[in-house]
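User: Can you help me understand a structure? I only have the sequence.
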Amino acid sequence: MDSQNLSAQAPTASRDEAKNHPSRGTSAGVVHENAPHSTHFTVVGNHLAQHEELSLTAIGLATHIQSLPAGSPVDIRSLARRFPEGTTRIAAALRELEAHGYLRRTRQRTAAGHVVTRTVSCNRPLGRTGGGNTRRPQPEPEPPPRRRGTQEPPQRRREVQAPPQHRREAQEPAPRRREAQEPAPRRREPRRPAALPAVPQPAYATPDQVQTAIGILSGLRRTDTRLLISATDAEHLAPGVVTWLERDVPPEAVHRALTTALPTEPLHRPASLLAHRLNAGLPPLPPFRPRTPAVVHPMQNCDSCDHGHRAPEPGLCRGCQST
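Assistant: Let's start by predicting it. Here is the structure, written out as tokens:
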């Protein structure tokens, strides 16, 4: 019986297995197991999937919207019924996508006089390429010092045999060379203002209600000059005011709720305060009141003038009763 050779080397791993598993000595990262798709797939660029400023909710919501067929509803309520994030997080994610050019929302008036929101999804905004992160490449490490007795690499020999003019440049003081190699200071981008909080959305907003809501918001500055807001902020807050009007709240009560007990310190962004009050003080729905049908009395002939009139019982008409 043959003896087992313990000094034999283990068989080498196949090329496919080595490619699917991380090598030893490195941190274990993600391993992709990709299968080709022939149907039911959506192409998403790395500029969206690896965006450095968008939140994870915004990236996932943009991917879902790009996978929908044309004409699908993508309003806040429809997305909130589909996902568990809620209307507040979905509205904030839509504003992120709109700020970075992945979404365009415009209000248009139909032939019937209704105001609707048109949403356009862009799979590649202007100024975006197909790549992902745009970080600068890390500088290559310097080569280790050459040991005594070893041969210099070809590149080092070429540098030694350079023309005299290159040798004079190489003999310049070291501080001057370091100053020339220092990168230019990075320009800081202006800080974008934070997005406004979401406001309640009405069930159906008529043009008259929207115009009344804009009038209420533009009239707040007459009570307090600190409540002066822009036209963009008024357009964002108008649906919240319409929601109050739908719940049988008169315009005077809405104005009083937004201007009563204001803080004494300066208001840096009054639109955020108004959005908070529209959410926190939203009144409940009014009780259901069924309409009572109108009572129609039968026709009766007057006992005095014989004219016809409506009354529950026969008798005199109103003219004969007054004489």
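Now, to help you interpret it: Confidence is low (pLDDT under 50) at residues 132-137. The two ends are 140 Å apart (CA to CA). Let me know which part you'd like to focus on.
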